[in-house]
Design a protein that fits this description.
This protein is mainly alpha-helical and about 230 residues long. About 60% of the residues lie in helices and about 5% in strands. The chain has a two-stranded antiparallel ribbon. The longest helix is centred in the last third of the chain and has 25 residues. The relative contact order is 0.15.
Length: about 230
């Protein structure tokens, strides 16, 4: 049985459409894939962001996410920049409204993103991009704490992709869902929209640049491109 064209989204994973549907299960259906909340049509971290936002929204707020479902279909890549920049964008979205403790955790996450990004770009490990520096300057106490906490530890890409990036997104979504603001549902939707926009930008950039050379090393993925 196919879901309704205008789905009623609900929390969690559902074995069949008769049991309900979450955001990514509806994406799998619209993409013509087997029913799953982990479809191949969407980048793993973007899909994870959608699942977390789906489950953290109120019943009413969740229904307002439905219009974004088609936007995640086809947004996928194995380019390592995607994991770094989607995680960083989610942290940016949550940082201004997060409670103090979570601001510190998000600031650490942003610095971790910056260390991986610097390695991918071939820059100095301590080099922080202007956009991150500006975002962190808005929360100076959290930034200073994160600098002391993070030190100069390497962040292997494999560990970042498998553990750090999902943790950054989870913290960002949780911080937004628990923020002391009037419209948490709206903020959650904006976080997901920001992640989708980042993936769209990356997809457009990839289609416009020459084919990159990729090589694998024991614990990280190095990319040489025209970025």
């Amino acid at each position: 049985m196919a879901p309704d064209l205008l789905p009623v989204l609900s929390r969690g994973k559902h074995r069949t459409a008769r049991k309900g549907a979450c955001f990514m299960e509806m994406a799998s259906f619209l993409a013509g894939e087997p029913w799953s909340d982990h479809p191949g049509c969407t980048h793993r971290l973007l899909a994870g962001t959608a699942r977390m936002v789906n489950d953290s929204s109120s019943d009413d707020g969740r229904q307002r996410l439905a219009g974004l479902i088609p936007d995640v279909i086809g947004l996928t890549s194995d380019d390592p920049y995607w994991d770094v920049l989607i995680a960083r964008r989610a942290a940016f979205a949550a940082l201004p409204i997060a409670a103090g403790e979570r601001q510190r955790v998000l600031a650490v996450g942003i610095l971790a993103c910056e260390r991986v990004l610097a390695e991918l770009d071939g820059r100095s490990p301590g080099d922080v991009t202007d956009v991150s520096r500006w975002a962190l300057s808005e929360v100076p106490d959290a930034y200073e704490w994160a600098l002391r906490y993070s030190g100069d530890h390497d962040v292997p890409f494999q560990r970042f992709r498998d553990s750090s990036a999902p943790s950054i997104v989870l913290t960002a979504v949780a911080a937004t869902a628990n923020a002391c603001i009037a419209d948490r549902d709206g903020a959650l939707r904006e976080l997901l929209e920001a992640a989708i926009d980042e993936a769209r930008r990356l997809a457009a950039e990839m289609s416009a640049r020459p084919t990159s050379y990729r090589s694998e090393t024991p614990d990280r993925l190095v990319i040489a491109s025209t970025r």
